[in-house]
Amino acid sequence: MEKNQLFDGVAQSFGTNGEAIVKADGATVFVPYLLPGEKARIKVLKCKGAVCYGKAVEIYTPAEDRVRPQCEAFYRCGGCQLQHMRYRLQLKLKSNIVKEALRKIGGIDYAVPACERSEKEYGYRNKLQLPIGRKDGENVIGFYAERSHRIIPVSDCPIHPAWAGKLISALARFMEKCGLEGYDETDGSGQLRHIVVRELKGKFIVTLVSAVREIKGIDYLLFLLDGIFSEYSFYLNLNDKKTNVVFGEEFTLLKGPGIYECTDGGIVFEAGANTFVQVNESVRGKLYEKAVSLAVTGGEDVVIDCYAGGGLLTAMFAKKCAHAYGVEIVSEASACADSLKEKNGLSDKMTNLCGKVEDLLPALIGKYPNATVVLDPPRAGVDRSVIKAILAQKVARVVMISCNPATLARDLGILTGTLKETPAGELEKNSSADGDYKIDFLQPFDMFPQTKHVETLVLLCRK
Q1: 80, 306, 336, 403: which one is catalytic?
Q2: 198-209 pLDDT, tens per residue?
Q3: Taking a C-beta distance cutoff of 8 angstroms, is the pair 458, 392 a contact?
Q4: What is the pLDDT of residues 142-174, one digit of tens each?
Q5: Residues paired with 419 in a beta bridge
Q6: CA torsion angle 3 450 23 404 (round to 10)
Q7: Which of 49, 48, 41, 47 is closest to 11 using CA atoms?
């Protein structure tokens, strides 16, 4: 098998990113947008030994679960990977992604249940984030192509509500009328870099990210936004550094209160331009409700919520248990959590600690040896020292929330003993191990329909 080779093949199964796997001439070929059972003409794009990557030039026998994507930019945009398949197959795929990650990475064989579906297959995202750039002398507003910073222009995005297309149109009109240019990452020219919109129960926070402090004609943009949103705030954010980070440090509020009050799970909380809120409201509710039921078994329980963010989930725990501790390294988020506990009358049941989980958790476990530890880390997973602290101090119950099946499988492998650490700090399979923990509950949730991403909730109990 070599680059540019054409061959006919039949897709046998899915890979971990939703691409199809085709076996041919002793090689394994990964082909995006092909479904198992489909026969296709395939062109090889790249090979590394017996592993190749290709694209389907022609599909001879489309699968029953193949559907027409709703987005005109689907095959070029890097945001979605699964619009070409029926939703029932997406759910099956995501359960299998979690199962295979556990098996291949963590050495864990587990009967992963069906993925919890989203109420909305499209139009579910409450946050829109669009890069703004230049191509061939023209402004482009869109999304990055897969594994690149090449902007694919779009006029709408179907996984967002109807306001997304209206916003894109208004931004393009504003830039054209006021003579503004998108940002060029190569030479730093241009004024506008991103636009970010967060919807909070029918209220909106719009943030325009600029490479320069002053933007001419900004009142015209506000006039256009007035025709789209009935209630919104508008920030101008300055990011004049050569960086991949979206926001700079300086936010200037030009319209509205800037922060809105919301209610979720019986908790009143505030959210601003830079507040983390899960993008799928209905699935977030299901996930958090189940996490609370797993972490709190009685009114006398203590819960230690690690990587707690702005404290929403910590407060939900606090309402049900004797006391909840939230541990968060970002000072702004921890301050929001303090405000949240006051607003909800939880001062005597909720304590927020600002610092690294690995530094603060051991003392908390020592003080409350029967506490339930909740881990909701970023995509990189749980710090190894945190896992070692849990093992050393024999925590009885651990609840994990993960957006990355690969790092989840790694962390579960260490806790259940199917992975062991070598003297060099590497991890290797440990098939004969009888670990300290067993998985009592595991459930994938489809927080991100039409994409390859999946959220997973796990309960571990000490044997």
Answers
A1: 403
A2: 999 999 999 999
A3: no
A4: 999 988 999 999 999 999 999 999 999 999 999
A5: 429
A6: 90
A7: 41
